[in-house]
Amino acid sequence: MGKNNILKKLSFLLGLILCSYPLVSGIVQQQAQKGTVATYQQMIENSSTASIEDTLTKANEYNEVLFNSLISVSSDKISILSEESYNEILNIGNGIMGSIEIPSINVNLPIYHGTSDEVLSVGVGHLNGTSLPIGGINTKSILTAHRGLPSAKLFTRLDELVEGDLFFIRVLNETLAYKVNDIQVIDPEDVAGLEIEEGKDLVSLITCTPYGLNTHRLVVTGERTEYEPAIYENIESKNMSIREVVFLAIPFVFLTIILGRRIKSARKKD
Q1: Given this model, what pLDDT does residue 242 score?
Q2: Are strands 152-154 and 124-126 parallel, antiparallel or unpaired?
Q3: Which SUPFAM superfamilies does the UniProt entry name for this protein (predicted)?
């Protein structure tokens, strides 16, 4: 009988740990990501104006050559699009090129060069071969991140965005505002809608969907709009979806069951 009680307690404890892991790990990762973003901002503040201007000039040149290459305009600067060059441009340190904040769904993540598994496990990846996220006409940056990872939220709540919502890209010493104007679900192989649109300044955020199945891609696109600090400051967080509330509640349900059983057991002994 004693052994059965021990096994039951261990089973509940194991269940509680397993259910609590995503919540606890998510909080830890979120703090780490905020720390990474803060470190990036500090590095920018410590950089000289000349250094920042030089970096921005190279990034603009990259985007211009990229756009021209896509419309079949030859350039003697095509080497700037090489992988080695790409990884150096906007790389202030640790491969970070900036950060993205989506206040309405409590997202504040570093943006890294490339979309390797290592990058996508800790932040947002910039898709090599698309415009660098510095803004400007004839640009379209593709930023991608996982959702539903046990260890981090990342773009888990991206499906809660609607047209008109704002997100912000911080790169070098600028803050760029984008207003969501298009939301699509596409096949993984469908890249037709991800191309640069001439004359526009766009950023597309991509993650897997449906949640847990990941058979398609959710694409949330925003078009550049004027950054207004007052509007940014007044953005309110959205209420979490039912899915997120359920996942958040699971550890507390387990804890309630455990405490309820202990109280019941204690009353029987009395």
Answers
A1: 67
A2: unpaired
A3: Sortase
Between 262 and 89, the more confident residue is: 89
- Tell me the one-letter amino acid at 150: P
CA distances (Å), origin 30, targets 123, 134, 146, 220, 254: 10, 24, 14, 22, 24
For 240, the 3-state DSSP assignment is: coil
- Local structure of 23: helix, strand or coil: helix
Cα–Cα distance list, 9 to 19, 91, 213 (Å): 15, 51, 33
Contact of 65 with 80, CB cutoff 8 Å:
yes
For residue 191, what are its two tokens?
């890249």
CA distance 29 to 13: 23
pLDDT band at 34 (very low <50, low <70, confident <90, very high): confident
Residue 182 has pLDDT above 80, yes or no: yes
pLDDT tens digit sequence for 203-261: 999 999 998 788 999 999 999 999 999 999 999 988 776 666 666 665 666 667 666 66
Per the CB < 8 A criterion, the answer to whether 114 and 126 are in contact is yes
Q: What is the DSSP letter of 222?
A: E
Residue environment code for 153-186, b if the CB has 16+ CB neighbours within 10 A, otherwise e: bbbbbbbbbeeebbbbbbbbeeebbbebeebeeb
Element (H, E) at 12: helix 2-45
